[in-house]
Every structure is written in structure tokens, then in C-alpha cells.
Design a protein that fits this description.
The protein is of the alpha+beta class. Helices cover about 50% and strands about 20% of the residues. The protein is built from 6 helices and 8 strands. An 8-stranded antiparallel beta barrel has the order 1-2-3-4-5-6-7-8. A hairpin with a 5-residue loop joins strand 1 and strand 2. The longest helix is centred in the N-terminal third of the chain and has 41 residues. The mean pLDDT is about 85.
């Protein structure tokens, strides 16, 4: 059943829709991240929870402000235009939103000398993000706030569930390390300080300034380096996650190296301070000629 429009309710519903849009985007990003190599310094669960809480509070404030500045006036103007010019209110909400967001975007772009293409893209994205809040909030239905608060999170949770099931049954490509094999090991592997491990196909290896990190080293402890010549071996393991590379150089105390990265940019890595520390020491496979 329809009822008189309450612009206070418009503001609440629009802000809620904006928060749900961000929540849905976060879920999609998390699903996408599962298809990519993990970061060099993974975020711990406690830090992730604290970050999401702070981010959620910031999003709520921004969604409320954007709703008050753009969406609420857009709904009121669309209502007025529909009464004067005819047509449905919904037809007018996106164009009015686009007209309202254009002046600040153009002013910012002119002051900062932003390219016209970037301005048009941002303008289109801003219009697309703010319009759904206006389209939903304009509805004159009883219990609208409750319905949005109920079905919006359900859509977000359903997206996350479907994505998780997609990974479980193999419809979505979850990340796996590249299965490099002993042939791909031959060549030069470089760390962030230009330290190198040079592997040859006959099982020999030469180290030059490679970090000598043991699993029990503190994550913030001093970094030692090691140089010399020795041997290496590759163990395929049960799958791509358990493959290992053993490097034996006199005077160097490396544990087994794990394999990460991608097929195009494979990496060897060690945990610094144990797996729970989240810190990695990595070497990347150098391109031919480097």
C-alpha cells in the first residue's frame, strides 16, 4: 500500500542502499582476491576485522552525507518534474542525479586539470552508484525501510554464498601456485635487494647476497645475507601447494622454499618469523637477459 512520501525515510533508505552497494562491492572484491596470488604481507584476522569495522563506519557517514546532498534533492526534483512535465518519477531520478553531481565534479576536475575522459568516467560511475538509492527511496510503500534492511543484506550474503559455492565446485578459478617443475627452475631468481639465486639444469646453484631467513627469526629482526655455491632439488609434492625447492649452500641455513606467484611471474618464498607472522621473503624469476 502506498503512503505519503517522507523525506526523512528517503534519506534513511538512500543511505542504507548506499551502504549495501559498498558491502556488495566488498564481497565481490573478496571473491576476486581469491583468484589472485596472496599479498606479500597478508592481513591478519584481527587487523582485518578492525579495518572492516572502521571502514564500515566511514561508509555509513559518507553514504548519509551523499544521500543528503545529492539523492534527497534528486528525489524531490524528480517528483516535481514528473508532476509538471508528466511521466514517472523513476524516469527522472537518474538524469537529475547526473545533473546534480556534474557541477562539483567539473569544478574539481578543472581545478586539478583532470583529463576529460577521466571526468566522464567518474561522472558516469557516480551517477550509477547514487541513482539506485534514489530509485528505491522514492517508493511510497509501508515498511520500505524494513524491507531494504532485510532483503539488501540477504542479497549481499547470497552473493558471498554463491561465490563460495562456485569456488567449491570449480566454477570459479581459485588461485593456485604455478606447478613450475625442475625445468622451469633453471635461470636467475632475484629478491627486492638484487640478491640472486642462479639455478642450472644440472642441479647446481650459486647464491649472491640472498637473505638468510630462518623460520624462527623475528619478523622485525636484522636481515642476514648468504653467498656461495651448492646444489638444489625440486620436490613436486602432492599438488601445486606442496611443491618445494631445497637449496643447499654451505653456510646458509635456508629451510625449504615454497612456490608462489603465477605462471608468468613465478616466485620462491620463505616465511619470516613463521607462517603466522604473515611476512614473506620472496625471489622472482628474472626474465631472460636480466
Amino acid at each position: 500500500m502506498d503512503q505519503e512520501r517522507s523525506y526523512g525515510r528517503v534519506l534513511v533508505v538512500s543511505a542504507l542502499v548506499g551502504c549495501l552497494e559498498v558491502a556488495l562491492a566488498v564481497v565481490v572484491v573478496f571473491l576476486y582476491v581469491r583468484t589472485q596470488p596472496p599479498p606479500d604481507t597478508p592481513v591478519g584476522p584481527s587487523a582485518l576485522a578492525a579495518g572492516l569495522l572502521s571502514f564500515g563506519m566511514l561508509v555509513a557517514v559518507i553514504a548519509f552525507l551523499l544521500s543528503a546532498v545529492f539523492v534527497l534533492p534528486a528525489v524531490a526534483l524528480a517528483d516535481l518534474i514528473a508532476r509538471r512535465a508528466g511521466g514517472r518519477e523513476a524516469w527522472w531520478v537518474p538524469p537529475v542525479v547526473a545533473a546534480l553531481v556534474a557541477p562539483p565534479i567539473v569544478a574539481f576536475a578543472a581545478y586539478n586539470h583532470v583529463q576529460a575522459r577521466s571526468v566522464l568516467v567518474f561522472w558516469a560511475v557516480a551517477t550509477a552508484v547514487l541513482s539506485p538509492g534514489g530509485l528505491v527511496a522514492r517508493l511510497r510503500r509501508r515498511g520500505l525501510v524494513g524491507k531494504v534492511a532485510l532483503w539488501g543484506p540477504a542479497v549481499v550474503a547470497g552473493t558471498g554464498l554463491l561465490g563460495t559455492l562456485g569456488f567449491a565446485v570449480g566454477l570459479l578459478p581459485a588461485y593456485e601456485p604455478p606447478a613450475i617443475g625442475p625445468t622451469a627452475m633453471a635461470g636467475t631468481w632475484v629478491d627486492h635487494t638484487s640478491g640472486t639465486l642462479v639455478f642450472t639444469s644440472d642441479g647446481r646453484v650459486t647464491a649472491s647476497g640472498v637473505g638468510d631467513h630462518a623460520p624462527d627469526d623475528p619478523p622485525g629482526g636484522p636481515s642476514r645475507t648468504c653467498s656461495g655455491s651448492g646444489t638444489w632439488s625440486y620436490e613436486p609434492g602432492r599438488d601445486a601447494w606442496t611443491q618445494e625447492v631445497r637449496v643447499r649452500v654451505p653456510g646458509c641455513s635456508w629451510p625449504v622454499w615454497s612456490v608462489g606467484g603465477t605462471d608468468r611471474t613465478p616466485r620462491l618464498y620463505l616465511h619470516v618469523g613463521g607462517p603466522e607472522s604473515g611476512r614473506l621473503y620472496q625471489l622472482r624469476k628474472a626474465a631472460d637477459g636480466q
